[in-house]
Amino acid sequence: GDKAFAQFLSDEIKEEKKIQKHKSLPKVSGGWELEVHGTEARLVRKIAGEKITVTFNINNSIPPSDDDEEPHEGQKPDEQEPDITSTPNFVVEVIKDDTKQTLVLDCHYPEDEVGHEGEEESDIFTIREVSFQPTGESDWKDTNYTLNTDSLDWALYDHLMDFLADRGVDNTFADELIELSTALEHQEYIKFLEDLKSFVKCQ
């Protein structure tokens, strides 16, 4: 059984490498520096007096597919497989040099917005929550007030979106983030298959 499993994994790795779009991770325009730690990625950008950090994790970032088709039945040509895209939630932190506080905006891609070609007006990501957190502390406090945007005045929400756009977090950025996250997810998936293969073959 293990031999067959290892053989299956070898074929699977070959197939996945064949459809891998990016041999190296795509860049995000606008001078963002990328740091990757396993499945977590962080993009950092410094502008006058501020540091903007965007953090996301590729785990659980692929929306469930609508239909339960089995893409690997008899290995249909790749064209028939829907493009798997990774749309992770991401957290934007804006740190001003002269304050001890960080403004934290929790953003996500709404599930129904995936086919957003053509409608230029709508934003492809939304802000879910906003809070202040003490700068430099890794554990955020639940006691800090968190503003949920569900019941928010639209004018205030629009200002928050503009605030992000002025710092380079706009639709273009959100599109490039999907591209980056998808490539990173695929890279990690192939690595996982390779690790699994070594594990299965290990006697």
TrEMBL record:
SUPFAM superfamilies: Mitochondrial glycoprotein MAM33-like (SSF54529). GO terms for biological process: apoptotic process; complement activation, classical pathway; cytosolic ribosome assembly; DNA damage response; innate immune response; mRNA processing; negative regulation of mRNA splicing, via spliceosome; regulation of complement activation. It is a peripheral membrane protein. It is found in: Cell membrane; Cytoplasm; Mitochondrion matrix; Nucleus, Nucleolus. One of its GO terms (cellular component) is mitochondrial matrix. Keywords: Acetylation, Adaptive immunity, Apoptosis, Cell membrane, Complement pathway, Cytoplasm, DNA damage, Immunity, Innate immunity, Membrane, Mitochondrion, mRNA processing, mRNA splicing, Nucleus, Phosphoprotein, Secreted, Transcription, Transcription regulation, Transit peptide. The keyword Hydrolase does not apply. Pfam families: MAM33 (PF02330). One of its GO terms (molecular function) is complement component C1q complex binding. Residues 57-87 are annotated as: Disordered. Belongs to the MAM33 family. PANTHER family: COMPLEMENT COMPONENT 1 (PTHR10826), COMPLEMENT COMPONENT 1 Q SUBCOMPONENT-BINDING PROTEIN, MITOCHONDRIAL (PTHR10826:SF1). This is Complement component 1 Q subcomponent-binding protein, mitochondrial. It comes from Todus mexicanus (Puerto Rican tody).
